[in-house]
Amino acid sequence: MKTTIIEKTQDPKDCGTPNNKIDHEAGFGLIKYLIVGLFFGLIFVKAEIISWFRIQEMFRLQSFFMYGVIGSAILVGIISIQLIKRFNIKTIHGDEIIIPKKEFRKGQIIGGFIFGLGWALTGACPGPLFAQIGSGFTVIAVTLVSAIAGTWTYGRFSDKLPN
Amino acid sequence: MEQFIEWIKQPWPWWVAGPLIGLTVPILLLIGNKSFGISSSLRHVCAMCVPANIPFFTYNWRKEMWNIVFVIGILIGGFVATAFFANPETIVIAESTQQDLAALGITDYSSLMPAEIFNWENLFTAKGLLFFVVGGFLVGFGTRYAGGCTSGHAIMGISSLQWPSVVATIFFMIGGFLMTHAFLGPLMTLVGF
Q1: Which of A15, A130, B30, B127 is the S-S candidate for B74 at Cβ 3.0 to 4.6 Å?
Q2: Which residues of chain B does A66 touch, with a Cβ-Cβ cutoff of 8 Å?
Q3: How far apart are CA B132 and CA A157, in angstroms?
Q4: Residue A1: what pLDDT?
Q5: What is the spatial distance between Cα A26 and Cα B15, in angstroms, rounded to a whole number?
Q6: Are A135 and B46 an interchain contact pair (Cβ–Cβ within 8 Å)?
Q7: Residue from the list A15, A92, A121 with its beta carbon closest to the beta carbon of B130
Q8: What is the pLDDT of residue A43?
Q9: Chains A and B: how many Cβ contacts under 8 Å?
């Protein structure tokens, strides 16, 4: 059976969330992502995943909560992708589903470690940062601007860093 | 309806939140062939606002607008959840964590974020420098260097059974454990907690 998943090799310079949709979409076509994002933000807040306290519990191994969240999310993700492959499911536009292949690089070790340090400080990965700001913790906008500056700094010096 | 609102105001357990987050993976693939990831939005903002002729930022960001729209949705979702469905009770945190945090000077559980750290008064102080500026920078720099965050690697990457994402996730956790257990205490003392 033919698999629908085309695992495209990715260059480190390539986008981490590439747009593999064939046709151009803009304007109203993007509203569906706003709605998915909205539900996502709602879940983040309602399950208190955006809480700095929850992240502390996780890194202190004093609560199963975050491990349960991430573990069950991965489980559902694995099953979903396997079903898509098994039943050759196409997008709603009828396109083949494309999942980019992640190449191993040193950045996943060094960068991953650096992100981990920041995760424990801020109590947030990039997703919760947005939900925290929306929840009224407006000072987190400063953290977000600093995260954008961090991303820019990586981009500026990426050719000089071990990759 | 009222009962529904009451029910939805309760904090959601992990076995509701986790699977719903996991469903984002197939939903994004099915509605538009998008790989789930959030930290890329930070890169698109750079490409949009300050590309500065850096090759890493000179790409067609217009094609990636969906990612920006998605994170704006997350922000609005955060607002909706807090404005209309906020849990009136205080957050329940493990007793042992509360004891550990009390030793660091964190005792205010009135909101989801410790008020002692995350307030505007701290902005131009050493506390703000550590938690907002340094913390944010590490998140932005680290996720881009790693090529993804918890969503792109831990959830999307592992869901599609890609071992480099497992490596990245392991190092996210090592960094977090080290910060929490080795650096957080001394750093908080240093900035005046």
Answers
A1: A130
A2: 14
A3: 22
A4: 36
A5: 35
A6: no
A7: A121
A8: 96
A9: 547
pLDDT along chain B (193 residues), means of 10: 85 96 97 95 96 94 94 98 93 96 96 96 97 98 96 96 97 98 97 94
Give the chain B residue whose CA is nearest to the CA of A78.
B159
**Closest chain A CA to residue B102:** A53
Please say whether the beta carbons of B25 and A81 come within 8 A: yes
Q: Is B176 on the interface with A (CB under 8 A)?
A: yes
B131 touches chain A (CB under 8 A): yes
Q: What is the pLDDT of residues B72-88, one digit of tens each?
A: 999 999 999 999 999 99
Which 8-state DSSP code applies to residue B111? S
For residues A51 and B112, the answer to whether their CB atoms sit within 8 Å is yes
Among residues A81, A119, A34, which one has the least CA distance to residue B75? A34
Among all chains, which residue has been given the structure tokens 């986008």?
A15
Out of B11, B14, B175, name the one closest to residue A115 (CB). Answer: B175
Q: Which of B12, B119, B120 sits opposite A46 (nearest CB)?
A: B12
Query: With contact defined as beta carbons under 8 Å apart, do B131 and B122 qualify?
Result: yes
Burial of B80 (0-12, 13-18, 19+ CB in 10 A): middle
pLDDT lower than 70: segments of chain A: 1-19, 21-24
Amino acid residing at A155? G
Give the per-residue pLDDT at A3: 42
